[in-house]
Amino acid sequence: MVELLRLENVTKEYSRGLFGGTRFRAVEDVSFKVDKGKILALIGESGSGKTTIARIILRILRPTSGRVIFEGKDIFAFDAEESAAYYRNVQGIFQDPYSSFNPLKTVDDILELTCKKYTCSEYPENAIKQVLERVGLDPQSVLGKFPHQLSGGQLQRVSIARALLVKPRLLVADEPVSMLDASTRVDILNILYDLKTGENISTLLITHDVSQAYYVGDEIVVLYRGHVMERGDATILEKPLHPYTTNLLASVPTLSSRWATEEKIRAARLRLEAEEETVYTTTGCKYASRCPYASEKLGCFTRKPPEIEVEPGHFVRCWLYERR
Ligand SMILES: Nc1ncnc2c1ncn2[C@@H]1O[C@H](COP(=O)(O)OP(=O)(O)OP(=O)(O)O)[C@@H](O)[C@H]1O
Ligand SMILES: [Mg+2]
């Protein structure tokens, strides 16, 4: 496998509290790599730091420490020419396609503008038709229309088409299908899969939905409160080792799990609020306050676990797997 992009011990601190007096780490010591022609699924619940990581990779944010390496070079040490090439090579796709486009411009205006900005082809019209067809759209049905005249699924296809116009190497897709209905979701995930197999385009798929990650992910990274808890190939979701991953998989709702009563939702919210402070102040594992296996003896409440390579390529950040 050939590496395309690598995160090395990336940490991002933000200010929090009144007047931004205290700092907290939204992302801490995150390392993983995306290979050429592969899909890496980054899974995590709300607030775990997924979008922060996407923004760092897209160079919208600088990490507080750590490095992001693209084809062997630190993306924050690029010169102007390398930066321009990077902005072409790495394209973002976002959750809400309606807010990704200027509502006053038609689809052709939008795509022509991108084509002009990146001089995508000598024949922009042909290039635009080609990418629209590539994402399963009939050009006639979308050209000349404004974003609000398209469905969410059609518009998300247009955003992928726009990204493809500049022939990227990596797509950073932040919850690209969360706002779409189930069948459209699968269609869009299938497009990402086809781009991988057909054009060797890699994707960092960010999602809170484990089933999406398992559906298309070659590699999986499980994030919790800014920490990578477990990572490895897709089979780690079949045999998860970290107690958090196990819990995440067990909490996937199914047709037979109808239990979300008001009382249970309120109890869960109260528990989360109580945990919030311990999680920010803990010197130990971020998951310790929720973990059924956490113990003083293992040091879960006082010592931060390192990433432990339990088997080749399968990393778990948990004291249970420390070799003694
Ligand atoms: N600019 C900012 N200033 C301060 N805190 C921030 C900022 N941006 C994000 N955060 C905080 O950092 C943490 C991680 O946020 P982030 O948006 O990366 O999470 P996420 O995993 O993408 O969540 P979601 O699934 O809800 O999109 C959250 O606690 C969030 O409140
Ligand atoms: Mg997010």
UniProtKB/TrEMBL annotation:
Keywords, alphabetical: ATP-binding, Nucleotide-binding, Transport
InterPro entries xref list: AAA+_ATPase, ABC_transporter-like_ATP-bd, ABC_transporter-like_CS, Oligopep_ABC_C, P-loop_NTPase
Signal peptide: none
Domain ABC transporter: 5-250
TM regions (residue ranges): none
Residue ranges the record marks as coiled coil: none
GO MF annotation, one: ATP hydrolysis activity
GO process terms (BP): peptide transport
Protein name (record): Oligopeptide/dipeptide ABC transporter, ATPase subunit
Organism this protein belongs to: Thermofilum pendens (strain DSM 2475 / Hrk 5)
